[in-house]
Structure to design on (1162 residues):
């Protein structure tokens, strides 16, 4: 949806109030200094809210568990996720081999432990997700900041690019590019970032357009703070909560997209394991060994569920009005 | 309004040119299809001769100019894989994909609106909770996984519908459901939240006070006002499907639409076919985007297209 | 041009229409039934003449149905029922036998004479005669035509009609395997082919037991029995060849009774599907070794690689036993040149470790390139081999390449070839020349090994017309390649077909699916 933003006019005719504004600015700064726990208090309030909202709490626990499994995959995996043994392939959950080793979720088509592969798959999914958010988020946010801060010609150009690219057939392009540069975790991050940066640019620009009207920005300008200084020191903190929502939504999108790419054979490649790849490799055994596709399928579904719940919750907490809107912008063209 | 349309049109052309250039550069600059088009035993000289004949040795801009000149006239070249007019191949597959996507979106809307309304009427009831959870599941579930499971349960085990193929409603129903899961979930959520908001507006109170029947109030007032985000989202989800998101479902269900064609073209590095496919998809997306704006403007008098 | 623009406009309009559809939710548009599902139709009682119908599955839409052009495993099963060649192999023994040619004789070193079947017509009524043979030969070998399967008939230099039903075919030099090559030369109708040059690949016309009906791109091709077939009308009336890209979906369709034949059935499904049949195939998965780089230039290391692989375990685990161990060569016993004295390297991990140690190659890191989705269980096989190689102390880096990258690497030449590369070879000419020259000679396009002695033997055998002498040369070459451990020898896979209960069929050794061989049982 591309609706023209209402043009934002600045009224710079109030030089006289400079002193007062500087005073306000100082007062705000002083508040920070006097109460160093200010930020923490906010977080604590959020934590209290979270404990009350059961759905959101479940979501956060899921996300936390997945993150922990990703980080500690090597420690908590009962087996080497890459060590195959074709003598014990396609064994059902609970299988115990001759050496007495237990395979809680069974083995896959190479005789590898599914549980261990799920842990390591979490690592790949999260790495790809965080990689995309890092790349797309950085690029998108910077362009959005620049666009919103300078407005005018720069804004026009950047927003045209955003509009143009939002109209691109995302998955199709991703597939074409991946085929050409070859499938790997790095290339998936590149391709999904190309599809994802616009969302960050849009939201950042929108916020920037509103806060550049705020008094303390004017004040900072007048006292000679550089453009980049203003953007990063003053505007940035305001971006944190809305961007957090976008980040979680993007994470959900990336997990699903990576799974789809892997399913089509253009995603993660062995010896790495990802949930999508596990489903892709196991799908031929769907009627023979249901556990091959079921567990990674559940992992993807539950993780995305958790991430989305957190996103929803963040959106309500940080901006009650956002909740109401139809926000296709939140998921981008990916 | 007219100025707006002219601008949108220009922008759309820009999008289409942009997409075409990008795909052209990516496919030509990075990949070389010559080796793939020839049999495994072809010698280096044969490959070189083939490249010459296909024009792969010309500078990129010359190649693009040649392509663009013909494309403007409607000639997108022959598919390297199926050896016939590429655009014809793509358009031949259009009806199947359009049928699948429209069925899926209709399914999604029909199944989501009543549920969303009921959930909104009784917030925090078990129905509301179930609706919210299931709609989230619809959004979270990977479509290929859902597709495989549907085949397993309804086609292989119960045999009430067909596993794959094209022709009757029994072929259509599983891929349509697999494709509809996500839009269904998202639309249900939107219906629920928008309806909840509308229910508390003052005009609702007025309408009730005037003694209008409750279902009348809900349907003629609240739903009408809530329809803006719902319709926008539905149209947006349809765009998304048409923009290539049918690829996975069409592959799983052997549905002969252009998503499957695109996948085959990509696998075979059929440059002309990829190009034609992306071109058509870009046009669809652009047209759909303009329509979404139009619908938005029509439904909400507050929005002015400027 | 105009029509293209028109279709384009229609497409855009269609998209526009859709929008209105979604604004006002309506009943789903009634799907146009293009074909009723064949499998659900009750079989008719079998009177005289063809009856009933059958559905078989291919993995992708055919590229074109011009039988002389594509190197396409999905077009072949369609065309094999529409078109015929001069000779055909026996389905059980792979012996060459008559088809459109009744008999043949060698006139001199480079000339062969064929007596043709009389009274055969193409589906459009064109007569099949010597002119049609000459036309078909010349069309296929025309460099302008640029056939993808030209290598199968590369030695043929021309043809000439002697009389209406006698034709001479010439080769450039003496060619001991000309007759085998002719099983790749489909006979096309001269007048129709010329007049419909544009559309020939979409509407095929042959002499075979089935006539083309329609091709719904991406969905199916349908054929009907040719009641006037010169070999007698086939017993099944209608054939539908459906495209199902997903193996899991195809197996599901077979289990659900929607289709009758699925090729390349995953062995695990053997006891899931209603019925199955398998036959020794000609597919050889193998691992190419780049013999020019450290440490693989040491024959001991290459032998160690062969000793390290437990081929029988691979066969039993991955293929449920439906494969034969490749006996130290990439040839089946039916191939000319198969050396019965050469046996597979046994599985002996201790010996492998010892050889690696002697060569100072323990712990060496080797890149192993594979691909995915082209052959039955290709990626799984690569991963399993890597595991076994790592078990003897090597360090294997798997690289599952995208298909075109994989191709580039396969043909990169001996210098740029990766250490190890998985590939699969099928020699459908049933003659050692094709396999040995491509894989193990200096000039071979896929070779990363060369031995001047092997080069000489293969090149001399190519024009040797004395059968015993020629066979002996191949025996020697096979032995040398084995001693050099020029590649990792793996398996010779069976062709496994999943069948419905209603089909009676014995699969052929040459992998062709001929519906005229099948009957329906009720």
């Amino acid at each position: 949806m591309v609706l023209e933003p209402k043009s934002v006019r600045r009224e710079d005719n109030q030089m006289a109030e400079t002193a007062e504004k500087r005073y306000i600015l100082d007062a705000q700064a002083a508040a920070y200094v006097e109460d160093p726990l200010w930020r923490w208090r906010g977080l604590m309030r959020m934590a209290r809210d979270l404990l009350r909202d059961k759905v959101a709490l479940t979501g956060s626990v899921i996300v936390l568990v997945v993150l922990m499994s990703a980080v500690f995959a090597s420690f908590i995996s009962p087996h080497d996720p890459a060590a195959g043994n074709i003598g014990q392939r396609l064994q059902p959950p609970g299988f115990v081999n001759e050496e007495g080793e237990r395979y809680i979720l069974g083995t896959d088509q190479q005789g590898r432990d599914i549980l261990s592969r799920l842990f390591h798959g979490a690592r790949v999914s999260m790495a790809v997700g965080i990689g995309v958010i890092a790349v797309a988020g950085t690029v998108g946010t910077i362009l959005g900041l620049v666009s919103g801060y300078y407005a005018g010609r720069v804004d026009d150009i950047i927003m045209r690019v955003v509009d143009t690219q939002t109209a691109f057939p995302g998955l199709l392009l991703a597939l074409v590019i991946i085929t050409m540069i070859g499938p790997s975790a790095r290339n998936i991050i590149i391709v999904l970032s190309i599809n994802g940066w616009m969302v960050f640019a849009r939201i950042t620009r929108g916020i920037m357009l509103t806060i550049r009207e705020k008094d303390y920005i004017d004040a900072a300008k007048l006292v000679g703070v550089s453009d980049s200084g203003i953007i990063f020191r003053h505007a940035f903190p305001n971006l944190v909560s809305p961007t957090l929502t976008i980040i979680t939504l993007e994470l959900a999108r990336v997990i699903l997209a990576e799974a789809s790419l892997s399913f089509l054979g253009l995603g993660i490649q062995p010896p790495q394991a990802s949930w999508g790849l596990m489903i892709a490799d196991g799908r031929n055994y769907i009627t023979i060994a249901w556990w091959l596709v079921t567990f990674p399928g559940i992992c993807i579904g539950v993780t995305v569920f958790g991430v989305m719940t957190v996103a929803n919750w963040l959106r309500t907490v940080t901006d009650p009005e956002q909740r109401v809107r139809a926000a296709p912008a939140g998921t981008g063209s990916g | 309004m007219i100025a707006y349309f002219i601008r949108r049109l220009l922008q759309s052309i820009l999008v289409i040119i942009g997409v075409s250039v990008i795909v052209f550069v990516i496919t030509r600059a990075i990949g070389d299809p010559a080796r793939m088009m020839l049999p495994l035993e072809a010698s280096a000289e044969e490959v070189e001769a083939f490249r010459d004949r296909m024009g792969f040795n010309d500078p990129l801009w010359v190649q693009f100019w040649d392509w663009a000149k013909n494309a403007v006239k409607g000639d997108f070249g022959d598919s390297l894989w199926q050896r016939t007019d590429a655009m014809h191949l793509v358009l031949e597959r259009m009806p199947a994909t359009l049928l699948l996507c429209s069925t899926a979106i209709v399914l999604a809307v029909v199944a989501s609106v009543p549920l969303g309304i009921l959930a909104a009427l009784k917030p925090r009831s078990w129905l509301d909770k179930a609706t919210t959870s299931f709609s989230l599941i619809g959004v979270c579930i990977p479509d290929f996984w859902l597709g495989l499971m549907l085949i397993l349960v309804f086609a292989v085990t119960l045999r009430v519908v067909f596993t794959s193929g094209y022709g009757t409603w029994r072929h259509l129903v599983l891929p349509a459901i697999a494709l509809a899961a996500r839009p269904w979930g998202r639309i249900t959520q939107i219906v629920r939240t928008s309806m909840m908001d509308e229910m508390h507006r003052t005009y609702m109170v007025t309408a009730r006070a005037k003694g209008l029947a409750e279902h009348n109030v809900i349907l003629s007032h609240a739903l009408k006002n809530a329809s803006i985000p719902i319709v926008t989202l539905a149209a947006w989800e349809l765009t998304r499907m048409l923009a290539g998101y049918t690829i996975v479902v069409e592959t799983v269900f052997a549905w002969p639409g252009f998503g499957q064609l695109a996948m085959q073209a990509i696998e075979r590095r059929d440059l002309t076919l990829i190009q034609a496919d992306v071109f058509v998809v870009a046009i669809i997306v652009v047209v759909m985007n303009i329509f979404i704006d139009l619908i938005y403007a029509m439904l909400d008098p507050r929005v002015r297209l400027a | 041009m105009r029509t293209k623009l028109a279709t384009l406009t229609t497409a855009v309009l269609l998209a526009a229409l859709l929008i209105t559809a979604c604004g006002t939710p309506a009943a789903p548009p009634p799907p146009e039934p293009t074909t009723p599902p064949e499998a659900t139709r009750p079989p008719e009682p079998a009177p005289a003449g063809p009856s009933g119908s059958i559905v078989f599955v291919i993995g992708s839409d055919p590229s074109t149905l011009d039988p002389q052009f594509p190197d396409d495993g999905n077009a072949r099963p369609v065309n094999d029922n529409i078109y015929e060649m001069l000779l055909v192999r026996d389905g059980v023994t792979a012996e060459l036998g008559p088809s459109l040619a009744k008999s043949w004789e060698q006139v001199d070193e480079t000339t062969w004479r064929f007596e043709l079947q009389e009274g055969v017509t193409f589906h459009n009524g064109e007569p099949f005669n010597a002119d049609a043979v000459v036309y078909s030969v010349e069309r296929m070998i025309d460099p302008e035509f640029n056939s993808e399967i030209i290598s199968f008939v590369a030695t043929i230099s021309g043809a000439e009609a002697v009389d209406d039903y006698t034709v001479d075919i010439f080769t450039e030099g003496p060619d001991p395997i000309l007759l085998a090559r002719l099983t790749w030369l489909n006979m096309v109708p001269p007048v129709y082919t010329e007049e419909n040059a544009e559309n020939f690949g979409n509407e095929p016309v042959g002499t075979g037991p089935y006539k083309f009906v329609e091709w719904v791109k991406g969905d199916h091709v349908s054929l009907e029995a040719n009641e006037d077939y010169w070999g007698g009308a086939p017993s099944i009336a209608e054939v539908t060849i459906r495209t199902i890209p997903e193996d899991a979906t195809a197996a599901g369709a077979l289990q659900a009774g929607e289709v009758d034949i699925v090729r390349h059935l995953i062995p695990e499904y053997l006891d899931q599907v209603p019925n199955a049949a398998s036959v020794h195939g000609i597919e050889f998965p193998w691992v190419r070794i780049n013999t020019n780089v450290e440490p693989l230039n040491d024959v001991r290391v290459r032998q160690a690689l062969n000793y390290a692989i437990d081929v029988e375990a691979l066969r039993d685990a991955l293929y449920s036993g439906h494969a034969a161990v490749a006996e130290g060569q990439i040839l089946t016993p039916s191939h000319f040149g198969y050396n019965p004295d050469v046996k597979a390297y046994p599985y002996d991990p201790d010996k492998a470790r010892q050889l690696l140690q002697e060569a100072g190659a323990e712990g060496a890191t080797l890149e192993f390139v594979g691909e995915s989705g082209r052959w039955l269980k290709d990626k799984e096989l690569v991963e399993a081999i890597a595991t076994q190689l790592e078990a003897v102390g090597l360090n294997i880096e798997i690289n599952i390449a995208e298909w075109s990258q994989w191709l580039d690497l396969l043909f990169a030449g001996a210098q740029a070839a990766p250490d190890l590369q998985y590939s699969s070879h099928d020699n459908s000419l049933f003659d050692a020349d094709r396999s040995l020259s491509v894989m193990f000679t200096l000039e071979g396009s896929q070779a990363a090994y060369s031995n001047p002695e092997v080069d000489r033997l293969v090149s001399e055998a190519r024009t040797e017309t004395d059968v015993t002498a020629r066979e002996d040369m191949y025996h020697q070459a096979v032995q040398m390649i084995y001693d050099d451990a020029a590649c990792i020898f793996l398996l010779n896979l069976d062709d496994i077909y999943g069948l419905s209960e209603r089909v009676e069929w014995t699969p052929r050794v040459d992998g062709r699916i001929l519906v005229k061989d099948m009957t329906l049982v009720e």
